[in-house]
Amino acid sequence: MSTGSAIILSTILLIVSVGAWRISVAHRWGTVGKVLGVIILLIAVIIGGIYAYQWYQERPKVVNNLSGIRIGMIEAEVFVEMGEPDSVTKHKTYKVLRYTKEYDTAFALDVSVSSKDNKVDVLCEQGEFTDPYLSSYVSESELIERFGEPEATFIDPNGSYKTLAYPSYNLTFIIRSGNVSEVCLSNKAQGYLA
Question: Which of 65, 117, 177, 179 could cross-link to 70 by cystine, CB 3.0-4.6 Å?
Fold first, then answer.
């Protein structure tokens, strides 16, 4: 202990000792005890409030959009939000609009638009996830720890990927080599397993 620390500590002890002696002389321990009890209770309530707020912010929640695109948007709204897609792949009942970033070749946003009603029904994002809530999950074990066991699971017959579906959160995660490689958002997540 340095000389400065010793002087500060002895000063604090002296102040506490004088305070205790003054309280003893005046017989005011009951008042001091009540004041200290209220202070300790206030500190406990504040700390409890901080922990409750952190728990509330970190709980699993329903995800409604990826990269500013929501399920149910019409194709024109997607064009207004994202611009022209980099590529369009047409299928029998839907088409996929793919958006990429020049500076990030790993990133892709696939927007599946139904041919029936021209609305977005599935969104998949791969690479760097734009949603900070989703970007914090990198491994399968972290997902399961946070969301619990998946409501549905699909393993590719070739073993190249695995999907974990959480329809109650509108989410499907695609796992490759034990890590999250893609996040899909759908209001029918169980139907998007294969």
Answer: 65
Residue 59 three-state SS = coil
Task: Return the domain boundaries, the chain.
Answer: 3-58, 65-191
**CATH 1.10.10.60 for domain 65-191:** no
The 8-class DSSP code of residue 16 comes to H
Rg of the chain over all Cα atoms, to the nearest angstrom? 28
User: Residue 45 corresponds to which tokens in the numbers above?
Assistant: 């309530």
pTM, two decimal places: 0.63
- For residue 163, the one-letter residue type is T
* Spatial contact of 152 and 188, defined as CB atoms under 8 Å apart: no
DSSP-based three-state secondary structure for 99: strand
DSSP reduced 3-state for 67: coil
81-114: b or e for each residue (b if 16 or more CB lie within 10 Å)? ebeebeeeeeeeeebbbebbeeeeeebbbbbbbe
Burial of 177 (0-12, 13-18, 19+ CB in 10 A): exposed
Let me know if 29 is exposed, middle or buried by CB neighbors in 10 A (0-12, 13-18, 19+). exposed
Q: Are 78 and 65 in contact (CB under 8 A)?
A: no
The C-alpha atoms of residue 108 and residue 124 are separated, in whole angstroms, by: 8
